[in-house]
């Protein structure tokens, strides 16, 4: 794609990066076939190729974002299926992230939307606040029937429809909090390694059992596990809302405490059980590439970050104790298969440990969770969830496995089949409790 940025514009490192990305695009359109919003809506501007044109014009002409540009960028899930499909290696992720920063900086949204986004950006990264909000949401759930149903025909979801979607995602009850930050879990037997485990934000409130299962499996196999004190949200939530100052501040804070822990006791890896977080942590090196202080530490931390299944694949797990032929539909989270290019490892681990693993038809299409997307774009998100659940039903599973809490909550809202994390199944197979019973 031909670009016409001025030399003054190209002095900005973000514009230089955008220019490089745009020049890689050859307009082939392969991305449209795997883009969930294009598949659903059929609008060229709701495809990666269409959005790339919109972003190019906005950046090249240094124009304030228009309502139309904002609408189509907001509809992007950042599922990154287009990057898996693209034959030219277009880094759409870094381009659309830059567009979101520009929109956040230069576009004034309606007051109700600004308030909602501010609340989400403040509450979700703070587990204490998020727990309180989930308790309040649970109390309000009985009144959701009084709110309007999401409508795909509307140009933009109303605040009430978004609130209804948010309440529908709230659980009926919350589990007890998991172990506190600063806790160290000793390995059983001889120590074979030492890792930090990302504690997460929403996950530690909604499903602390996931990290507990990871701790069980790791310590069972000789790995010391550290929950690093003063760790923060990884920054993914605010990063994808275009609030980069907040996201980068959180990244710097995490790099500081993880590096300190690595210097103190050594770390073989920083393990992540939420793939959406993992994709961003692995991108710290890029996000802080222009930071004179943090550029090199960020690269080192990104290199240490691994999805839990990546790390477990390097261990020789104990022989499976599983005796049931449990059929598992494996939902490949977008942030894992497209963001981190991890596709086969989780399925191989499950198969080796006694599960009958079934691929879900249209596995490349997003379930509609995508961070805060199912709140901000509930109409599209609900259609994608229903499509995903229908495809899962075709394989008639006993359980559904996924590697991302957002996907788990989203899919569970449309099915009665237990939705569990991959690590919970591996914990069960190697001596832990059967998941999906609570």
Automatic annotation (TrEMBL):
<dbReference type="Pfam" id="PF13183">
    <property type="entry name" value="Fer4_8"/>
</dbReference>
<keyword id="KW-0408">Iron</keyword>
<dbReference type="GO" id="GO:0046872">
    <property type="term" value="F:metal ion binding"/>
</dbReference>
<feature type="domain" description="4Fe-4S ferredoxin-type">
    <location>
        <begin position="67"/>
        <end position="96"/>
    </location>
</feature>
<dbReference type="GO" id="GO:0051539">
    <property type="term" value="F:4 iron, 4 sulfur cluster binding"/>
</dbReference>
<dbReference type="Pfam" id="PF02754">
    <property type="entry name" value="CCG"/>
</dbReference>
<keyword id="KW-0004">4Fe-4S</keyword>
<protein>
    <recommendedName>
        <fullName>Glycolate oxidase iron-sulfur subunit</fullName>
        <ecNumber>1.1.99.14</ecNumber>
    </recommendedName>
</protein>
<dbReference type="InterPro" id="IPR004017">
    <property type="entry name" value="Cys_rich_dom"/>
</dbReference>
<dbReference type="InterPro" id="IPR017896">
    <property type="entry name" value="4Fe4S_Fe-S-bd"/>
</dbReference>
<dbReference type="InterPro" id="IPR009051">
    <property type="entry name" value="Helical_ferredxn"/>
</dbReference>
<keyword id="KW-0813">Transport</keyword>
<dbReference type="InterPro" id="IPR012257">
    <property type="entry name" value="Glc_ox_4Fe-4S"/>
</dbReference>
<keyword id="KW-0677">Repeat</keyword>
<dbReference type="InterPro" id="IPR017900">
    <property type="entry name" value="4Fe4S_Fe_S_CS"/>
</dbReference>
<comment type="function">
    <text>Component of a complex that catalyzes the oxidation of glycolate to glyoxylate.</text>
</comment>
<keyword id="KW-0249">Electron transport</keyword>
<keyword id="KW-0479">Metal-binding</keyword>
<feature type="domain" description="4Fe-4S ferredoxin-type">
    <location>
        <begin position="14"/>
        <end position="45"/>
    </location>
</feature>
<keyword id="KW-0411">Iron-sulfur</keyword>
<dbReference type="GO" id="GO:0019154">
    <property type="term" value="F:glycolate dehydrogenase activity"/>
</dbReference>
